[in-house]
Amino acid sequence: MSGLTYGIYAAGQVAATAGPPDDPAAIDDLVGGLSGGRPFVVREYVHFLGTPADPEKAQVLAPERRMRELTMPDEWYRTGNRRLDLVLCYLPEERDLDGWLAFIEQAVHRYGALAHFLQITLEPNFKLPWIDGSSPGVLDALTAGTRHARRLLDAAGHRDVLLGFSVAEPPEFLGGDEEFWAHLEALAPADFAAHIDYVGLGLYPDAFSPVPEPALAGLTEHALRQLREESMPRAHLGPDVPIHVAENGTPTGPDHPPTRPPGSTS
């Protein structure tokens, strides 16, 4: 366990759901207490909503403001041994590859010197509302966007920024994701896999239905093994490409209050 680097998404906005306004002082205390000065990942999201942007999503996600500033001031991400994990989300109502590539250029110009990890798209393998897999043209947004981001990062001298994408697993979730992996399998490694430094996993075994605590370990292992041994080889991504648990947790709500531990069914 000592070799693992942990992290958090500490803001209050999650897709269309928002908590109380972000409290920078409380976030600083939280992250400082969790990290203890050790390397610590802080995850943030900025969104491309199309040209023009969908008004409903723009009101909730505030993409123009997020391109100007993240949850905390820039300097905060450079101190305390923090590593910014920045996700570029693709959420237009219609296919808009040109607008997306321009957005990536804007994001690299704004945050390239600040980011440690740059993730292109969010879980493009499943068609969930407010998640990139539901957006028209998402497969090309991932592959063309990754190549474009790599060129931009290299040209700007940000060769230390690690470039990746994330998926939800296992494939039986929502009936499978064969189309996604078949698309990556058909690409030559030089067109996609060669540009990937890591693959992120959205790991939520207890998020959408009650799961007995003893089953959590097996479900977690299943998702990781499926990604490593079955899915990633199809995309020409070998065992040298790290897997990051990019997201993990259990949503709270009327049937799952914050006081109930993961895996609890009562």
Automatic annotation (TrEMBL):
Residue ranges for the region (Disordered) are 235-266
Gene3D superfamilies registered for this protein in UniProt: Glycosidases
* SUPFAM superfamilies listed in its UniProt record: (Trans)glycosidases
**Pro residues compositional bias: what residue ranges?**
254-266
- Name this protein carries in UniProt: Uncharacterized protein
